[in-house]
Design goal:
The chain is mostly helical. It is built from 6 helices and 3 strands; from the N terminus they run ααββααβαα.
C-alpha cells in the first residue's frame, strides 16, 4: 500500500492575526464623548440663564416648593458660594486654564467614566467663563448669573452643579483606582508572575 505525501508546504500562521489575538483590544478614545457632554451642558446652562434674566427680577424670588426651593436672580462677581468676589479677573484666567487642561487630557482619554466627569467639569467651566467674558460690567469682569436656591445652600446655576458633580465623580474614580486610560489599578495589570512561570517551564523543557 502506497501513501501519497503532499508536496504542498503546511499553511503558515499570519503574524498579524496572531498579534491581534495576543494583544487585548485597546479602549477607544473618548474625546468626542467628553466634548458632546460639555456642549450639551453648556447649552443648557446658557439657555436657563437667558430665560432667568428675561423673566426674573433681582430681589423678587419665585417659590417652587414651599420655603425649600426657589428661583432667585443673583449676579455673582466671585466664585462658588460668593467667594473671591474682588478677584473676578483671576477667576476668569483660572476657568480658562481649566478648559485648556481638560481638553489636553481628553485627547488621550480612554475611560468612559472619566470622559463623563471631565465633560461635566468642562461644560460647567465654559458656562461660567462665557458670563465672565461677555456679561456686565465687562470682559474678564463679568458677573455670573446664579438663580437656583435650595434650602440654606447658596444660590447656584447649572454650570456650578455640573462642575461639582463632575469633580465628585472624578474623585470617586480616583479613589477606586479607575484610570483615565481605561484600566483599573491593581486589577488590569498584566500577570507577570504567571508569564514568568510559563517561561521557566518552557526553558526547562527545552534544556531537558
Amino acid at each position: 500500500m502506497m501513501v501519497r505525501v503532499s508536496d504542498d508546504p503546511p499553511p503558515e500562521e499570519n503574524p498579524a492575526n496572531t498579534a491581534e489575538e495576543a494583544t487585548p483590544a485597546t479602549p477607544p478614545q473618548r474625546l468626542r464623548t467628553l466634548l458632546v457632554i460639555a456642549v450639551v451642558l453648556l447649552g443648557l446652562d446658557l439657555l436657563t440663564k437667558c430665560l432667568v434674566v428675561a423673566n426674573l427680577t433681582p430681589g423678587e424670588p419665585v417659590w417652587l416648593i414651599g420655603d425649600w426651593a426657589r428661583l432667585s436672580l443673583v449676579r455673582n462677581p466671585g466664585a462658588a458660594f460668593s467667594m473671591a468676589t474682588g478677584m473676578t479677573w483671576l477667576l476668569t484666567l483660572v476657568a480658562t486654564a481649566v478648559v485648556i487642561g481638560v481638553v489636553r487630557i481628553g485627547r488621550t482619554l480612554r475611560s468612559l467614566w472619566w470622559a463623563i466627569g471631565l465633560g461635566m467639569v468642562l461644560g460647567g467651566a465654559l458656562g461660567n467663563l462665557v458670563d465672565r467674558l461677555f456679561r456686565a460690567p465687562g470682559p474678564l469682569q463679568g458677573h455670573v448669573v446664579d438663580f437656583l436656591a435650595i434650602g440654606w445652600w447658596p444660590v447656584f446655576n447649572v454650570a456650578d452643579s455640573s462642575i461639582v458633580c463632575g469633580a465628585i465623580l472624578l474623585v470617586v474614580l480616583t479613589v477606586f483606582g479607575f484610570e483615565p486610560n481605561g484600566t483599573r489599578t491593581g486589577r488590569d495589570a498584566p500577570d507577570t508572575t504567571a508569564a514568568d512561570t510559563t517561561a521557566n517551564k518552557t526553558s526547562e523543557g527545552n534544556t531537558a
